[in-house]
Amino acid sequence: MTRRESLLTPFALAAAVTAQTPLAVPVHHVLDGKAQLGPEQIRYFWSRLWPEACRDFASCGIRFEGSVKTAEIWRPSGREPVIYGLDAGVVNLVITDRIPIEWANGRVLSGVTTLYRGYHVCMVALNRAHGHQVPFLSINTCVHELLHALMHDIFEGRPGGLNGAAREFRIDLYATRLWLFHDGSAIRSAAESYLRRVSKDRGAERCG
Asked: What is the pLDDT of residue 207?
């Protein structure tokens, strides 16, 4: 292989992935009706954050099929939040103003991804959410949280210390490669496996 061919290979692979049939990932947007959000923040999400995430994932052949609902998050003191309006078997992208204290563990976060009572939840806090800013360090909040789901982190508890930091860096590395180089073959492969697992879990629930 020549030097020129080796340089072109990553871009050729990215083009081949994009040319595949789009992989449809169902995303259910849940707008927190109790969140203290201004109209400009809502516009920012729909005009900047979400379109940027859709463009990034489209570059590796992933298309989001979405629905939107306004619901509420009840935040009882000393307990995990109660989230209404979630759908089963999809990624629930919850749009609110701040991450619940019980999930933030004392940190100020722009987003969090978790399994919540069997539902797959990516929560984005618009008071701190942002688009792509700095490669490897400050990535689009929606892209970062969706990757935690599609790359299967959602099925595991968040590790602490260095292991937790390493997992966050791993996600930002994938996000940066997707953003700057449209290199998402590993993401698409993981997303296909994620959808098979979700489908299998739904089938098990019906049988049960």
From this structure: 44
- Return the residue matching tokens 């490897």: 136
Instruction: For residue 150, give the 3-state DSSP assignment.
Output: helix
Using CA atoms, how far residue 178 sits from 47, 125, 131, 189, in Å, is 20, 23, 14, 14
Q: Are 121 and 161 in contact (CB under 8 A)?
A: no
Write the DSSP string, 62-92. EEEEEEEEEE-EE--TTS--EE-S--TTSEE
The whole-number pLDDT of residue 208 equals 43
Query: pTM of the prediction?
Result: 0.88
Q: Single out the residue of 6, 13, 3 nearest to residue 177, CA to CA.
A: 13
Domain 19-207, what fold? Answer: Collagenase (Catalytic Domain) (3.40.390)
pLDDT band, residue 9 (cuts 50/70/90): low
Helix (H, G, I), strand (E, B) or coil at 164: helix
Taking residue 128's Cβ as centre, other Cβ atoms within 10 Å add up to 14
pLDDT at 35 over 50: yes
pLDDT at 30 over 60: yes
Contact (CB, 8 A) for 119 and 88: yes
| pLDDT of 82 | 96
Locate 46 and state its tokens: 């729909």
